[in-house]
Structures are given as C-alpha cells and as structure tokens.
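Entry for the shared binder. Reason: the reviewer on the internal report wants the predicted structure included alongside the sequence.
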Amino acid sequence: RQLSSEPAHASRSPHTSLSVQRCCMAKLGEGDERWIVDERADGTNVHGWHWQEKDCMPWSKTRLSELLEGMSIVAGEGAVWLKVSKLESCTGEAYVNMRKGKKIPGYEVEVKASWEGEIREGGEETGTVIAKANGTVHLPYISDENADEDPEVKITTAADGPAYSKMRELMVNKGRKMVTEKINTWREELHAGGPGGDGPPPAPVAAPVKKTSASAPEVKDAVQKDQKEAKGTRTIKLTERFICKRSDIYDAYTHPHRIMAFSQSRAESDPTPGGKFLMFDGNVLGENVEMVPGEKIVQKWRFSNWEDGVYSTVTMTIKEPEPGNTILELVQKGIPEEDKFGNHNVMDQTEHGWKNLIFDRIRQVFGYGC
C-alpha cells in the first residue's frame, strides 16, 4: 500500500517523508486496521493480545471446598477418626491477568474451615463413639507475595477437655501439613490459569550450586536441605498500638534494663548494628542488623530450641502519626515449621510470645496501654 498519491518512484526529502507518515498514522479516537486488533464477534481474545482479567474467586471457593471438605486426617490412629468437615468461608480476592499469552496470577485470601473428630470404643470404626470434638482451621493470610512460603495455619478447638486436646494435637501435627498441601495445590492451579487454565505452572528455577571440593552426594544433600528450609518457613505480620512516644517503644525493646523489667528475666542487649541480644534467660537471642533510634529495628532472631544456625528476620517499623500515639508494625520472615525436637507449634509459640510476653507486658509495666 502506498502512503500518498505520489508515484512510488518520486523522490522525497526526509521532512516530506516524515510528514506523510504522520498523516497516515491513526488519530486519537479513530480506528486503523494496521494498528488496532479488532474485537471478534465471537469474543475470542486472539493470541491473548488484549489485557484480560479473570475473576477467580468463585472458582477458588468451589475448588477449595473440593480439596478440603471431607479430607481425612486420621482414621483409627489412637482410636481417633478426624477430618476437615466444611469450608466455612473464603474471602478476599483472586484473579489471573492475561496479556500476550502470559498468565499473571494475584491473590490475597483468608480461609476458614471446620474440623470434627470422634474417639471410638476399641479403636474399631464400628465401635461406639465415646467422645467427640470439633474446632476450626484458620488461614488468615494467603498471598501471592508470600508464594514461596507455606501459609500460617491456626488450629483452635470449640471447647476444652481431654478429647479436644488430643484431637487438636493431631490436627497440629498432621492436619496442618495436609491442609497446607491442599492450599499449595490450589495455588499451583491458579498459577496455571485457574478456571479453564491450560497447562501446568512453570517449573521452579533451581538456584545455582557453587562448585566445591565436596563429593556429589554431599552437594546434593546440601541443595535438598536448602530447598527444604526455604519451603518450610512462615511469616508473621503484627500491628500494635501504644499510648507513648515512638522513642519510648524503641527504648523499651532495646535497653537491657527495660527488657528485664517487662520480661522479669535475665536479658542482654547491645542496641547497635552488629550488637548481640538475648532475653527470657537466653530462650530468645540474636543479632541487630539495622538500628534507627525511634524508627526502625531489623534483627536476626531465633528461639534457642530451633535448629542450630537457623535465624528468622524481624523488621519493626515504628510510627507516631499523632503525638503520643505510636504504631509498631512487625514482620518476621523465615520462621521454621518445627523446632529441633520435631515440635510443630513454632508459629503459635512465636506469635504468642510477641503478643502476650512482649507487647502486652510493655503496656502493663510501662503504662503504654491503649
């Protein structure tokens, strides 16, 4: 196609050629078949050229119901029959964006389910039911920004008693892992396109392994260990409010005498970058990475019963939006799934410690309560 009425062989100056090309470009609001991809009558997004967003929340609720409801946790172990009974709620957002054939998933959801169990006489499935218990499974935050981490899973009971304690322990030690696996299945399917998805999600890219003099089996074991540690970690996010100056909160958490005051136990603290700290008689210890007085604290942080060399990263951001009203935002990443003794209550223990043994006691001892 010629761009003007001039003969094809006519000579033009560079300025004339540029002017002609500009005249033939599509104007704002006008279609031009050379630049616009027409909408098809059948609605097909040819080659995925257009930006397209697909709401995946309805599908997510249905899919998570299929994955979780009726899932058996134990059947006969210790005379207990235990299962996830129902998906109570799935709230938030989940979607997949499509552009030029690329799938871009996004999600931020909260999931609640119920569990129930029975203890049967003689440990037989047909035995008389001698005790029952029930409770909830709560996943408060499942997000694409933490896709490389297992989500937090909270297990609670509807009442107290020996049967409830026994079944909660089984839910924590066995059910939590099984629920996490089902959530990760949903994540993988969402990454593959969600409802009507075509094809598996991309394979994860393995981190390069440095060449060493170690033998091949040793290198392989090291890689597997690194992958396991990276996958088996959790994240805590907390927001706490105090009636005080932000410098007061900073001092309460970093000065050794103040730590001993609220913890009622031995504590040491060198509040400088690279400085060491310990509290609660050495049950919590670590090293300061970044210290901005009254504003920010970043630490390598661990319990003494974690595997040797395993540290989480704690970041505390302190703000004072109004004089005397302080907000502390805490993010703790890299929390291991279990301690070195195989206990799976690390997440609950860590969150309980921050809320009840540190922040609540700071409020009580120093009068910073809201």
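Summary line for the report: The longest helix spans residues 162-191.
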